[in-house]
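If you are new to this repository, start here. Below is one unmodified record pulled from the training split, so you can see the exact layout before writing a loader.
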Amino acid sequence: GTGSNRVTQFNLNTKMWNLQKPLSHVTTNLCSSGCLGYAFFATGDFKAATPADQIQMVNASDDATFLSKTLFKPSDRQIQRYNLTSGQMEENNMEKTRAGAVCACYSKGASTNYTGPGGNAPRVFFAGGQDDAGATDTVEMWLPGPDIKRRGEPEFAMSFSGRDRGGLVCGGRLVLAGGRAGVGQFEAETEDSYRQRITSNRGRSHPPKPKPKPPSLSDLVDVWMANATGPVSATRGRGGATGSPGVKPQQVYKLSEAVRLPKVVCLAERYVVIAGGHPAKGCFSSAMHLLDLDAPPASGSSLPLLPFTLNSTASTFAAVAFNNSAMFFNG
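And here is the target side for that same chain:
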């Protein structure tokens, strides 16, 4: 949609919705995670202009100026945390802007050590995402403790630079699935901006640029131990190309189809179900894959398909899980 900065909280005791302090920006495609009494939000795609404003920009400016003002783009690298008891909201800067990232919490099995790197401290992960320079493969982590701060290195490195993955922590593992790879700079044209520029260029002497190529989708599933440690890098999360390459996935699997935004749920802290997602063609995949964390297949192999599928191919799905059950809601 067009995005929002509204934050609402549902009180399970009073059965009432309550408005919280709004986010700093109107945004879409942001990720969130609940962790040890806090709700964390990472940067999404920030609204830059309405379609009508975009057309006016084209009419009044050259292509280079227009292309720097896409309909949605990140604005900063804020992380926002809400105290679910008091409603207090705090902000800090992430290492990168992460539009389309995955947020996940490691708390079950973790210690109560909030002192920083090392040990088995709980972690909040922010995986992948896109900024003005393009997508990243980095996974940064924060402490869900009293102070809102990065927990430091190690930093994980995904199999590819991309966004729009599905993921969570289950059974002490961080699992990331699917996503969009080959995502370029935000200055690259969107489908809407291409159509608007073609219309505005009619009658001009210079021809329009070629239609932009869509980014490629990924069928990969990356798995790490959520408390894994590794070499320290002082530069990767801030866009640097030097230093440690980050902690690579300990296992990598494949889905039967490349998709973006698959729904991922955890059952009994052992089974990871990866369902649906947007394929290159069609609205939504109905396939459901299973990863048994206690008896996983060999790294590099394809995950088995479950003998049943989602019963709809809607444009979007929501998913929730509790203990041994999962529910999927079509939109």
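Two things worth knowing about this chain: The radius of gyration is 20 Å. Confidence is low (pLDDT under 50) at residues 49-74, 185-191, 233-244.
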